[in-house]
Write a structure and sequence with these properties.
Structural class of chain A: alpha/beta
Enzyme class (chain B): ligase
Largest sheet of chain B: 9 strands, mixed
Keywords (chain B): ATP-binding, Ligase, Nucleotide-binding, Protein biosynthesis
Structural class of chain B: alpha+beta
Radius of gyration of chain B: 30 Å
Strand order of the largest sheet of chain B: 2-5-6-9-1-10-11-12-13
Helix content of chain A: 25-40%
EC number (chain B): 6.3.5.-
Distance between the termini of chain A: 17 Å
Number of strands of chain A: 11
Order of helices and strands of chain A: HHEHEHEHEHEEHHEHEHHHHEHHEEH
Strand order of the largest sheet of chain A: 4-6-5-10-11-9-7-8
Subunit structure (chain B): Heterotrimer of A, B and C subunits.
Number of domains of chain B: 3
Number of helices of chain B: 16
Number of domains of chain A: 1
Distance between the termini of chain B: 76 Å
Shape of chain A: globular
Family (chain B): Belongs to the GatB/GatE family. GatB subfamily.
Helix content of chain B: 25-40%
Strand content of chain A: 5-15%
CATH superfamily of chain A: Amidase signature (AS) domain
Order of helices and strands of chain B: HEHEEEEEEEEHEEHEEEHHHHHHHHHHHH
CATH architecture of chain A: Alpha-Beta Complex
Number of helices of chain A: 16
Number of strands of chain B: 14
CATH topology of chain A: Amidase signature (AS) enzymes
Largest sheet of chain A: 8 strands, mixed
Oligomer: heterodimer
Chain lengths: 496, 500
C-alpha cells in the first residue's frame, strides 16, 4: 500500500521500525498535495522545504535515540486558525492576510513535541464561521467525493485534506459542529472533545465558551492517537480542565458496545432530514443493537431551542472577540493616509477586512448584547443553554451515549446555500447541543445516502469527560461497518 | 473658554453638594493581571508586553491570584462583604490604547461590596459608604502629539505604550455622599487620603497619585437648599493629587452653582481637571450613555473565594491606619491637634520609625515637624522624600540627649545629612561639630574671653550674675558654637569666684 493510503498509526510504526522515514512520508504527502490540490484547494499555506526540514528533524531526533510518541514523523494538516510561529496564520480572513504570529498555539506546540510534521495550514470559513468554507476569504475548498460540493465547514480544508489523502490527520475546531459536520460529509472521523479538554490558547477565538480543538482522521484509532497527542490541561487556558485526558486510545482499541445503553435522540429526525441520511442512521442503530447494545429512545425537549440559542451566544461572543482586529497593532490597515482618525481607520479596515458572514454575526451579537436587549436575547439563550445541559444530564442517567445523524443532509452543492444563512445554519442542527453543553461528541461514517451516493455521519455523544465512550462506540461501529463494506467507506470515493 | 464661577460661600448658601468618588488603584503585583509581564513603572515603551497583553489573535487571559487576594484584602479593610461567587465581565468599547477593544472588568458581580470607610474632618468622624470594590485591568497609555490640548482631538498623531496595559487595577466606588455641606472638598480629600493610607498599610500598591498608580474620579452634583432631589452630576478626571481632589470639588461646586443660579442646566459629562488653573474643562458627554455591552467574560472561570481563606485574610489584616493613629497618639501622649498636624504632614510613619530607632517621641516629632518639615517645604518635596532616614534622625536626637550636640549643632548635622555628606556621625566628624568637652580647651577659651571682657567680669564679681550671659555668648562665639553653654557658664562663675 502506498504511504499516503496508510493509517497514521501504521505510518508511525513504519517510521519507528525504520522501514521508512519521516522525510519519505512527508515527501509522499507533498507529492499528493501537489497532485490534487488544484482540484481540492484544502490548503492556504504549504512550504515544502519547511515541511521536509521538520521531517528531517524528527528523523534526527530518532537517530539520536530520543524516545518519540506513536505519531512521530506522521504528517498532519493544521487548521489555519491555530497560531504557528513559522507559518502565516489568517483564520481565513483578509484582515489577517500575511500575519505571522510570534508564538505557537498550545495545540501547535504539542503537535511539534509529539514529532508530528505540519504539512501546512488548511482552509476554513472566515474565523470559523460557516459550514462550507464558502466564507473563506481565500476561495472555497472542494469535497473530494464530488468536487462540485462543499467539504463542510468551518474545518472544510481539514476534512478535505484527510479525505483526499493529502494528510492522514488534521486538526480542526468545533464551535457548533465545525469538526463533526465536515467529517460527516467527507466520510471521515471527526471528534469534538469535551470543552476544556483541549487548549484554546493560540486558537483564534470565534466563540470562547464553545470553541473546541479536535482531531480528524480516516479511522477512529488514528483520531484517538491525535486526540491524546494534543489534549490535556494547559495553564495558559483558564477554561482548560485540570484532569487527565480520558483513556481514548484504549477505548478505540476496545471497540465494543456489548452491554452499553444507547439512546436515540427523539428530537433529531423527520422533517428537513434527507431520507438517505435517516436510512443510514437507522441502519447504524440496528447495527449497534446487533452488536449487543441496548437501544432506547430518549427525549431531549430543549434541543429544539439549541439552534436559536447558539445563534445568540456565538455571535455575542464573536462580536467582542473580533473587536481586537482594529488595524492598530497587526493585520490589515486601510485608509491610514494621515488625514483620518484612528476611529475612521478602524472602521474602514473592518469594513474592508471582514466578509459578509462575519459582519452579519458581529452585528447580530452587538445587537443581542445591547442594553435593553441583553436579558431577552443573551440572557434567555444562556437559560436555554442550562436547560440543554440538564437534558443531557437526564439522558445520561438513562444511557451511556446518545446517537443521532451528524447532519440532516449530505454535502450540498457549492453555492446552494451561500445566499441563505438560515439554510446554512441548519447544517449544525444536531451538532450544536453538545457545544452548548460542552460534552464530547464524535462523527463516524455510516454509509452512503441512496439518493446521491454521498457519505453520511453517525454522531455519538457522551457526557463531559466521557470522550473515551465516543471512541469505544465509534470504533465498534467502524469495525462492524468495515466488515460489512469490506474496508473503509473512503475507498468508495472516486479517484481524484 | 472661561467659566463663570460663584463664590464658594455664596454657592453653599444656595446649594447642597452631593459627592461620589471612584478611585482606581494599580496593584503592586509583580506581574500583570492576566499575563506574566512585569509591572514596573518607567520601562522603555512597549517592552513589558506579550501576546496576551497585546491581545494578539489566539491569546487568552489567566487571572493573577495575588491580585484577587489583594482585592479581597482591600474589601475586608473597607468593611465590605466578599462575594462567594463572582465573575469577570467584558466592557466593550473601541479605543487604541485598549488592545482587545474590551476591558476585562467586573459588572454586576463585584468581588467586594457594601462597605464603609470612616474619615476624620475637623475632629468629626464622617462615614463614607462603599458601594463596591472590583478588579479590572488597566489600559495602555496614549500620548497625543501635536495640537494644543494634549488630547486626541486636534492631535497630529498619537502613540501608545502598552506597558501599562493589563496592570491590575482595583476600582473602589463610594455610594453617593450627601450631607457634607461646606466641608465637601475637605471630606473628599480626607477620604482619598485615608484610602491611600489603607492601601499603604495593606502593602498592595505604592499609591503614587503623580505616577497614576492611584487615580480619583470625583463626582459632584448640587441640589438647591431644601430640595431632596439630587441634581445632575459631573465626573472630574485627571485629578492627580490629594490637593487637587479638594480643589476640584470646590471648583466644580462654584461652577455648577453659577450655571444653576443663572437658570442653566448641568450637562452630565466627564470633565478634565487642570492642575494649573484648578478648573475643569468639558470632556466626553455622558448624556447619550455609551453602551458597553457588558457580558460575563467567557475566557475566565468564576472566582469562588473559599470562606475559610477569606476569614484567614481578615484575621491577618494589618492594623488599619485610623486604629494605628489612635494607638500612637495614646503612646506618644500628643494632642489631637498635634496628631492631626502630623497626619496632614504625612509624618506619622516617619515619627513612628524614628521612635522605633530609639528616639523619644517628643524629640522625634520635634525634628520631623520642625526643622525637617521646614526643609521639605523649602525644597518643595514630601517629608518622606528628604534624603534622611528615621534612623539618622534618631541618632541626632541621641547625640543631643547625650550632650554631644546642642540644637544649633544638630540643625547643622541635619543639613549635612540632607546634603549627602553621610551619616550624622560622619557629618559631625567631617564638619567638626562636636561640642567642646575638653575642659582644658574650654578653660583656655574662657580665660581669653574674661581677659577680653574685663568690665563684664568685674560686674559679675560684684554680684551682677546676669552679666554672665555676655561672657557665655563670647565663649560660644570663640568656639564657633561647639562649646557646651551650660558648662561654660559654670566654669566662668567658678573662675570669677562667684556662686549662685
Amino acid at each position: 500500500m502506498s504511504l499516503i493510503h496508510q493509517t497514521a498509526a501504521e505510518l508511525g510504526r513504519l517510521i519507528a521500525a525504520g522501514e521508512t522515514s519521516a522525510v519519505e512520508v512527508a515527501q509522499a504527502h507533498l507529492d499528493r498535495i501537489a497532485e490534487v490540490e488544484p482540484k481540492v484547494h484544502a490548503f492556504l499555506h504549504v512550504d515544502p522545504d519547511a515541511v521536509l526540514a521538520q521531517a528531517r528533524a524528527v528523523d534526527e531526533r530518532r537517530a539520536a535515540g530520543e524516545r518519540l510518541g506513536p505519531l512521530a514523523g506522521v504528517p498532519i494538516a493544521h487548521k489555519d486558525v491555530f497560531t504557528t510561529a513559522d507559518m502565516p496564520t489568517t483564520a481565513g480572513s483578509k484582515i489577517l492576510e500575511g500575519w505571522r504570529p510570534p508564538y505557537d498555539a498550545t495545540v501547535t506546540r504539542r503537535l511539534r513535541e509529539a514529532g508530528l510534521v505540519i504539512l501546512g495550514k488548511t482552509n476554513l470559513d472566515e474565523f470559523a464561521m460557516g459550514s462550507s468554507t464558502e466564507n473563506s476569504a481565500y476561495g472555497v475548498t472542494h469535497n473530494p467525493w464530488d468536487l462540485s460540493r462543499i467539504p463542510g465547514g468551518s474545518s472544510g480544508g481539514a476534512s478535505a485534506s484527510v479525505a483526499a489523502y493529502q494528510a492522514p490527520l488534521s486538526t480542526g475546531t468545533d464551535t457548533g459542529g465545525s469538526i463533526r459536520q465536515p467529517a460527516a460529509v467527507t466520510g471521515i472521523v471527526g471528534m469534538k472533545p469535551t470543552y476544556g479538554g483541549s487548549s484554546r490558547y493560540g486558537l483564534i477565538a470565534f466563540a470562547s465558551s464553545l470553541d473546541t480543538p479536535g482531531p480528524f482522521a480516516r479511522n477512529v484509532l488514528d483520531a484517538a492517537l491525535l486526540h491524546e497527542a494534543f489534549s490535556g490541561h494547559d495553564p495558559m487556558d483558564s477554561t482548560s480542565i485540570d484532569a487527565p485526558v480520558p483513556p481514548v486510545v484504549e477505548a478505540a482499541r476496545q471497540a465494543s458496545v456489548d452491554g452499553l445503553r444507547i439512546g436515540v435522540v427523539k428530537e433529531f429526525g423527520g422533517n428537513g432530514y434527507q431520507p438517505g441520511v435517516l436510512a443510514r442512521f437507522q441502519e447504524a442503530v440496528d447495527l449497534l443493537e446487533s452488536l449487543g447494545a441496548k437501544v432506547v429512545e430518549v427525549s431531549c425537549p430543549s434541543f429544539t431551542y439549541a439552534l436559536p440559542a447558539y445563534y445568540l451566544i456565538a455571535p455575542s461572543e464573536c462580536s467582542s472577540n473580533l473587536a481586537r482586529f482594529d488595524a492598530m497593532r497587526y493585520g490589515l490597515r486601510v485608509g491610514d493616509d494621515g488625514t483620518r482618525s484612528a476611529e475612521e481607520v478602524m472602521a474602514l479596515t473592518r469594513a474592508a477586512g471582514f466578509g459578509p458572514e462575519v459582519k452579519r454575526r458581529i452585528m447580530l451579537g452587538t445587537y443581542a448584547l445591547s442594553s435593553g436587549y441583553y436579558d431577552a436575547y443573551y440572557g434567555s439563550a444562556q437559560k436555554v443553554r442550562t436547560l440543554i445541559a440538564r437534558d443531557f444530564d437526564a439522558a445520561f442517567q438513562q444511557v451511556d451515549v446518545l446517537v443521532s445523524p451528524t447532519t440532516p443532509t449530505t454535502a450540498f452543492p457549492i453555492g446552494e446555500r451561500a445566499d441563505d444563512p438560515m439554510a446554512m445554519y441548519l447544517a449544525d442542527l444536531c451538532t450544536i447541543p453538545s457545544n452548548l453543553a460542552g460534552n464530547a461528541a464524535i462523527s463516524v461514517p455510516c454509509g452512503l445516502a441512496d439518493e446521491d451516493g454521498l457519505p453520511v455521519g453517525l454522531q455519538i455523544m457522551a457526557p463531559v469527560l466521557g470522550d473515551d465512550r465516543c471512541y469505544r462506540v465509534g470504533a465498534a461501529v467502524e469495525k462492524a461497518f468495515e466488515d460489512r463494506w469490506g474496508g473503509p467507506l473512503l475507498k468508495e470515493a472516486p479517484a481524484l | 473658554m472661561t467659566e463663570t464661577l460663584m463664590p464658594y460661600d455664596e454657592a453653599l448658601a444656595q446649594y447642597e453638594p452631593v459627592l461620589g468618588l471612584e478611585t482606581h488603584v494599580e496593584l503592586g503585583t509583580a506581574s500583570k493581571m492576566f499575563c506574566g509581564c512585569p509591572t514596573t513603572f518607567g520601562a522603555p515603551p512597549n517592552t513589558h508586553v506579550c501576546p496576551v497583553c497585546l491581545a494578539l489573535p489566539g491569546s487568552l487571559p489567566t487571572a493573577n491570584a495575588t491580585a484577587i487576594e489583594s482585592t479581597i484584602r482591600i474589601g475586608l479593610a473597607l468593611n465590605c462583604s466578599i462575594a462567594g461567587w463572582c465573575r469577570f465581565a467584558r466592557k466593550n468599547y473601541f479605543y487604541p490604547d485598549m488592545p482587545k477593544n474590551y476591558q476585562i472588568s467586573q459588572y454586576d458581580e463585584p468581588l467586594c461590596f457594601d462597605g464603609y470607610l470612616d474619615v476624620e474632618v475637623d475632629g468629626e468622624t464622617v462615614r463614607i459608604e462603599i458601594e463596591r470594590v472590583h478588579l479590572e485591568e488597566d489600559t495602555g497609555k496614549s500620548t497625543h502629539v501635536g495640537g494644543s490640548t494634549g488630547r486626541i482631538q486636534g492631535a497630529d498623531y498619537s502613540i501608545v505604550d502598552y506597558n501599562r496595559a493589563g496592570i491590575p487595577l482595583v476600582e473602589i466606588v463610594t455610594k453617593p455622599i450627601p450631607g457634607t455641606d461646606r466641608l465637601a472638598p475637605e471630606v473628599a480629600r480626607a477620604y482619598a487620603t485615608e484610602l491611600r493610607e489603607v492601601m499603604r498599610s495593606l502593602g498592595v500598591s505604592d499609591v503614587r497619585m503623580e505616577e497614576g498608580s492611584m487615580r480619583c474620579d470625583v463626582n459632584v452634583s448640587l441640589m438647591p437648599r431644601g430640595s431632596s432631589e439630587w441634581g445632575t452630576r459631573t465626573e472630574t478626571k485627571n485629578v492627580n493629587s490629594l490637593r487637587s481632589v479638594e480643589r476640584s470639588v470646590r471648583g466644580e461646586i462654584e461652577r455648577q452653582a453659577a450655571i444653576l443660579a443663572a437658570g442653566g442646566r448641568i450637562i452630565q459629562e466627564t470633565r478634565h481637571f487642570h492642575e494649573d488653573t484648578g478648573l475643569t474643562t468639558s470632556g466626553r458627554s455622558k448624556e447619550e450613555a455609551q453602551d458597553y455591552r457588558y457580558f460575563p467574560e467567557p475566557d475566565l472561570v468564576p472566582i469562588e473565594p473559599d470562606p475559610e481563606w477569606v476569614a484567614q485574610l481578615k484575621a491577618e489584616l494589618p492594623e488599619l491606619p485610623s486604629v494605628r493613629r489612635r494607638r500612637l497618639q495614646a503612646e506618644w501622649g500628643v494632642s489631637d491637634l498635634d496628631m492631626a498636624a502630623m497626619h496632614n504632614a504625612d509624618a506619622i510613619s516617619l515619627v513612628e520609625a524614628t521612635v522605633a530607632a530609639g528616639a523619644p517621641a517628643a524629640d522625634a516629632r520635634k525634628w520631623w515637624m520642625g526643622e525637617l518639615a521646614r526643609r521639605a517645604n523649602e525644597a518643595g518635596v514630601p517629608l518622606a522624600e528628604l534624603a534622611i532616614t528615621p534612623g539618622q534622625v534618631a541618632r541626632v536626637t541621641e547625640l543631643v540627649a547625650s550632650g554631644a550636640l546642642n540644637d544649633k549643632l544638630a540643625r547643622q548635622v541635619l543639613e549635612g545629612v540632607l546634603a549627602g555628606e553621610g551619616s550624622p556621625d560622619e557629618v559631625v566628624a567631617a564638619r567638626g561639630l562636636q561640642i567642646v568637652n575638653d575642659e582644658g580647651e574650654l578653660s583656655a577659651i574662657i580665660d581669653e574671653v574674661i581677659a577680653a571682657n574685663g568690665d563684664a567680669a568685674e560686674k559679675i564679681r560684684g554680684g551682677k550674675i546676669a552679666a554672665v550671659g555676655a561672657l557665655v555668648g563670647g565663649v560660644m562665639k570663640a568656639s564657633r558654637g561647639k562649646a557646651d553653654a551650660g558648662r561654660a557658664r559654670e566654669l566662668i562663675l567658678a573662675k570669677l569666684g562667684v556662686t549662685e
